[in-house]
Amino acid sequence: MSQSEQQDTIQPNTVVHIHYTLTGDDKKVIDSSRDSDPLPYLHGHGQIVRGLENALAGKRVGDKVSVRVSPEEGYGHYDAELVQTVGRDEFPEGSHFEVGAMFEAAGPNGEPFVIRITEINGDEVVVDGNHPLAGQHLNFDVEVITIRQATTQELEHGHVHEGDDDCH
Ligand code: ZN
Question: Ligand 1 center to residue 153 CA distance, Å?
Answer without folding.
Answer: 7
